[in-house]
Give the backbone structure.
Amino acid sequence: MNIVLLSGGSGKRLWPLSNDIRSKQFIKIFKKEDGTYESMVQRVYRQIRKADANAIVTIATSKTQVSSIHNQLGSSVGISIEPCRRDTFPAIALATAYLVDVMHVDPKESVVVCPVDPYVEQDYFEAVRGLSEQADKGEANLVLMGIEPTYPSEKYGYIIPENEEHTSMVKSFKEKPDVKTAEEYIAKGALWNGGVFAYKLQYVLDKAHELIDFTDYQDLFDKYETLNKISFDYAVVEKEDKIQVQRFSGQWKDLGTWNTLTEAMGEKVVGKGILNDTCEDVHIINEMDVPVLAMGLKDVVISASPEGILVSDKEQSSYIKPYVDGIEQQIMFAEKSWGSYQVIDVENGSMTIKVTLNAGHSMNYHSHKNRDEIWVVIAGEGTTIVDGMKQNVKVGDVITMCAGCRHTIRAVTELKLVEVQLGKEIHAEDKQKYPLEK
Amino acid sequence: MNIVLLSGGSGKRLWPLSNDIRSKQFIKIFKKEDGTYESMVQRVYRQIRKADANAIVTIATSKTQVSSIHNQLGSSVGISIEPCRRDTFPAIALATAYLVDVMHVDPKESVVVCPVDPYVEQDYFEAVRGLSEQADKGEANLVLMGIEPTYPSEKYGYIIPENEEHTSMVKSFKEKPDVKTAEEYIAKGALWNGGVFAYKLQYVLDKAHELIDFTDYQDLFDKYETLNKISFDYAVVEKEDKIQVQRFSGQWKDLGTWNTLTEAMGEKVVGKGILNDTCEDVHIINEMDVPVLAMGLKDVVISASPEGILVSDKEQSSYIKPYVDGIEQQIMFAEKSWGSYQVIDVENGSMTIKVTLNAGHSMNYHSHKNRDEIWVVIAGEGTTIVDGMKQNVKVGDVITMCAGCRHTIRAVTELKLVEVQLGKEIHAEDKQKYPLEK
């Protein structure tokens, strides 16, 4: 099976765990049987592997997520990088070309496109495999997953099938309705559109060539910025007559708000937290080192990270966005291709961060115009290059770098350092990168 | 007017702002007219100065509070340091001897003893001055403040006066009653005992000499550890016939729990915090650098500090103690005589703290057996002494100290440094102090 996972952009609805640079699908929040935690993307990837150990998985995403994806899924997963956001049709066209031209998948094969963040059980991916097999048959150009509705939701589009068979031709699509209209649709046998569909690669390649002038994946990638923003629904689905739908009646949740996310959590407390016995339906998700104590609360979610602290009634939590938009704040924590960093102190004229470098990785060779930096190695071993001079470093070593000085560090074992930045103007943008001479 | 303020020990009922080393009276939580914040002890001290600019104020407390008192009230306030806790009679005897022998107050003068943390208006300290003046008259040996009850509280002892005059002899005292009994007392004209009383210094000196064998203040101080624990009520009040009470009908609050403390706060948010418009009677007290966002809550207090995060229904907050007792945690923030420190990172084998030294102050000359330390100066100027060698330091300077190396730093201007501690065993107790050769 070939599968493309659409990994959406940053969102603030799960602040303080998601923000401008950290997306909800990477939050490690689900407890596994071995007691460790996995993220939405790790859960979905594990489920796909279980449904088909040989599945070719490609994640369609932006450059900013590449580090997190490799950190969480390893380096063998395919990534179709969108140079910029151009809506779903260009993204799916690019991923399709990537499968054919980079992964060398036969364009006669089918692929399933699926969001990266549904909260589902294993049967969902069995159904996904069913879509792929149905697309292989070629009875239709598109095969959609139709989810049996459990309530008249206003949040989803609806699919009206021609009949009640497991696989049926699609009669029509309906936009997100109000509750009353949703009830009428459901009475007529309508299904939720969960944004999952399968097609033969050649089909979307042909559609892409009809709408875009390009030769192959690399050419499409290079001119990606020039493409019009257009959705896959508008460009393809609405113009297509031969569409089938396959029913899915298992559990399916869209964990987009704290309310829905905490419903799916197996336990009340992730991280350091205490609920007293008068708390009712309270969840704590705490990424900080200090404890959260909750007393006498009901239907509340508490989440703490280096970015901030949320305490919200669960229903209210879906209205979070405008409040978070109003918070002006520097990024306090980030995953990078080489590891991660966390701001641990901010003063007028200085900033102190903790840097963790994964074994075998190094940061870019770079300099800063307006700040000096001092590194203190607090764990591990590595090699620094400072203005071309190489030096082995270990715990307790101190490296001082004046503004303008070029520097990098490579971790031999996992390496941690405290970096003190000093200067009147400290900005993330103040960074010049250089190639490293071998 | 002479006044002794009894400054009680550490408490956990206002965790995470109070803890083993930080007492509630030092939390800066009350907004002043100029927009800055003051603590309970600062508020009370300011009110006393306003009632009597020449008042001689002595704070009776333990050694651990001396730094905080000097930081918050300056160096001119008198402090009677209890070498250990020995209940209120030894504490009041010691403070009385301190006034006579150290501050050279005439033993014929009177003094008012008062808790350090009542939340009151200016009229309270006018009433305190009234007690002092009444004690001067010598009509009784003790003059108590009797607070007009506003409800039948079970939290206070009651004073039954002989008549309804402003000043009356005391007929009897009653222990903390149940609500029904309290109602009966109040019907009979009983007053709350707020723990405020005045006496002539010689009176308590005589009582002290009756019960304790000592010559003067220094002798009493030196043998303080050998004294029996005994309360002032038991040792003096219960045995005294000539006691007067003066009525006080102004505002008087005991801010011992988050519930009562937030009632007295002039504003809903102290520190970085946002309340959405569906929050009702919610308070945020945030000492951290990151924002707290509260949504859809009612009657809740949220408090965050480097020690932890509390989210509690206000009523429930009075039951906090056993939960906080269960939290094992190192101290993350402390005020010292020379400034303050805050733990900013804890790793296996290292701890990073930020140290702030007040101008003109220095830490002890000391060494550590089992850890190396590295200082990076991030603000200010000062002088280090490392193994006897003196050196001027400024922003960006790095000082490395191996285990065993003696070191100190003196701040010329306010000085801040990042201190990285490295070692397998990092304990606060690992500290040897040395005298500094001039």
Observations:
- The longest strand of chain A covers residues 191-200.
- Chain A touches chain B through 60 residues (CB under 8 Å).
